[in-house]
Amino acid sequence: MLILALESSCDETSAAVLDMDTGRRAIRSNLVASQIAVHRLYGGVVPEIASRAHIEAITSLTRDALAEAGCTLFDIGAIGVTASPGLIGALLVGVNFAKSLAYANRIPLVPVNHIRAHVAAALLAHPDLEPPFLALVVSGGHTTLYAVDTYTDYRLLGGTRDDAAGEAFDKVGRVIGLPYPGGAAMDKLAALGDPTAVKLPSPALPGDTLDFSFSGLKTAALNYLNGEAQRGTPIAASPDALTAGRAADLAASYTDTIVRAIVKKTDLALKQTGRKTLVLAGGVAANSHLRAGLTALGAKRGVRLCMPPLSLCGDNAAMVGAQAYYEFLAGVRADTALNASACD
Ligand code: KG4
Ligand code: ZN
Questions:
Q1: Residues 83 and 159 in one domain
Q2: Which tens digits make up the pLDDT trace of 262-318?
Q3: Is the pTM of this model over 0.85?
Q4: Looking at residue 196, which CATH number applies to its domain?
Q5: How far is the CA of 335 from the centre of ligand 1 (A)?
Q6: What is the number of the ligand closest to the CA of 143?
Q7: Helix or strand or coil: residue 306?
């Protein structure tokens, strides 16, 4: 069946058409209108601007996604839309647009959870992947481990108690002068530095818990940067070789501390659940150091690691469509009473 999917939870508007069936998970189109350039001026996402930009983009993007897929609304069997979690104003744009489209054209409407959609990106990349598996979602708002029992049954095992890994990357990236969002640039910078140069506290909470706390690590890195500035040796990711070298050392140490913590808790989750398949998903799943760390863990433990390609790690509607299909099969439907929710 053909599924039209819409995503507007943060700073990307996206529309996609998927062809989903037993044994078939195909992306017919997946268009993304990124607002990054707009928000970069402010160093982060401005919710009101995000909502307005979604409104401006969503109609033409949907038209283009249908055209690229070679179909019309008459061919669409269900409309999937991200309804939670995310920025409430941003979510409401996609939800209201999808509700109108579904109602006017008598197409079933399927609300989708954004986190599950990130995990579903791995289903598109790995056609034979099926639950049960362990899922690790690392994004701008989440660092969470789930036992995924069926396509629609998610059990929360652990996660961050404060900031998410993506947010932690972005914050330090911003302070050393990288453009928003700093995550991808931190990834590149970290490859040039010494991961043992700066000692930082681990975000993995002690003991058998699968929880994290990134706020202490973030504060430690910011204190380190402030201390260096006060000593008259400020660190910035500038083209100046000396300063850039020290920024790279900090990026490498910071990244290594985050990756080690995530690998440690994922290893523990694999032990606790006995799962033999691990899915890595979310925007930070694009991080080369995290991918390498989890690849090594998978090889060591004999666990299959499934990761979406970089093109499906960030927010996109194809992943929403993939999850919408399985929610549809599970009988999930919404009507015009559907509301968006900022929380999980
Ligand atoms: O999943 P996503 O697109 O949006 C949310 O649902 O939050 O994740 C965005 C986050 C941002 O914090 C961005 O800096 C981070 O993913 N990110 C990365 C990389 N690429 C994107 N973080 C580290 N390394 C990367 N290569
Ligand atoms: Zn996301």
A1: no
A2: 999 999 999 999 999 999 999 999 999 999 999 999 999 999 999 999 999 999 999
A3: yes
A4: 3.30.420.40
A5: 32
A6: 1
A7: strand
